[in-house]
Design a protein that fits this description.
- This protein has 170 residues and is an all-beta fold.
- It contains no helices and 15 strands.
- The relative contact order is 0.21.
Length: 170
């Protein structure tokens, strides 16, 4: 087994053609760079893409389960009460998710209309990739905010606390 690769902030990790930027990384000129010092790990994550957000729930397409990309689309839904583990009555869906966001979620059950009920009510679950209005991947700055590195505009999200073993790199 090879020794783990160590990276420093600003280090080029790979091309966007091969990898997707995640928490702890940023993109510039078609490449993925480290924004943190630590160990590099490449993994496939369970995720879904948000397609629609309303006041009571959001709809998404399930892209993969565990490390297995899906060959066909499955629909998922995250209800307002399944966004956070605490202060469930204070959740605002538009401050948690936006269309196009990529999230890590867990399946709760088979819901109605042949869609799965999903939850992000753990620290490790939530938005892992979001684009700003400027079309740039945003950087998480807290558990509830992400910031555009180009315009420095902050936007609310239910941000996943991505574990070190899930940070993408080459």
């Amino acid at each position: 087994m090879a020794a783990p690769r160590i990276c420093v902030p600003g280090e080029r990790l790979g091309s966007l053609d091969q990898y997707e930027a995640s928490s702890g990384t940023y993109t510039r000129h078609g490449d993925v760079y480290s924004s943190l010092a630590g160990y590099v790990s490449v993994t496939k994550q369970s995720n879904g893409k948000i397609t629609n957000v309303s006041t009571r729930f959001c709809k998404c397409i399930i892209l993969c389960v565990a490390d297995m990309p899906l060959k066909e689309n499955f629909r998922g839904m995250i209800r307002k009460e399944d966004v956070r583990a605490t202060e469930k009555d204070r959740v605002e869906m538009y401050k948690s998710f936006r269309p196009g966001d990529i999230v890590i979620a867990k399946v709760l059950s088979l819901g109605d209309a042949q869609s799965y009920l999903l939850t992000t009510a753990e620290n490790e679950l939530g938005v892992v990739l979001a684009q700003s209005e400027a079309g740039v991947n945003m950087i998480p700055i807290s558990w509830c905010e992400m910031q555009c590195p180009k315009t420095h505009i902050k936007e609310f999200r239910k941000v996943a606390k991505v574990q070190p073993q899930h940070i993408l790199a080459s």
